[in-house]
Structure prediction request, 195 residues.
Amino acid sequence: MRANRSVRVCARLILLLIVTATTLLAPPPPLFAADAPPADADVPAMGRTWPVGLRPRVLRGWEPPATVYGPGHRGVDLAAPAGTPVRAVTAGRVSFAGRVAGKGVVSVDLTGTGDPPLRTTYEPVTATVGKGDEVEPGQVIGTVDASGSHCTAACVHWGLRRGEVYLNPLSLLPPWLLYRGPSRLLPVLGIRPPH
Prediction:
């Protein structure tokens, strides 16, 4: 009788270890429907916050064009209703704040990213900063405009480039900011669970 109980306890512990190991080794869920493209090697993961919200839904990912003028998506579209604060992802200097083709646009040259510097763009945005302003990570630089979006739902388009080369803006964010899976608590072995 006692031997059967010991076998059952050992079997449960082994099963718990297998489930825990499987959970820890499983790849994280994708950021959005299509897996995120790999990070650009020359883009440091220096971002401290998302441009909008805590972990906004990515409505459309980065799709680099095959040629300079080819089709693609030169940024990511993040779900954000009109009026949502738009924040600087990292420190920099505002290089442009105004309207382009009827859309509000804010561009920020990122501090310490070489020559030419990395530049982030946000649109459609009503700017609360001006050209030449220094911005800090997380600082509000504007709000999402009610009009001017190319998304079917309200969104902000976030882009990144160096010179004339477009890059994946998600590369600026460290993995812990990108991860969208649930938190996982691990069991503490040797301690009985409460009844």
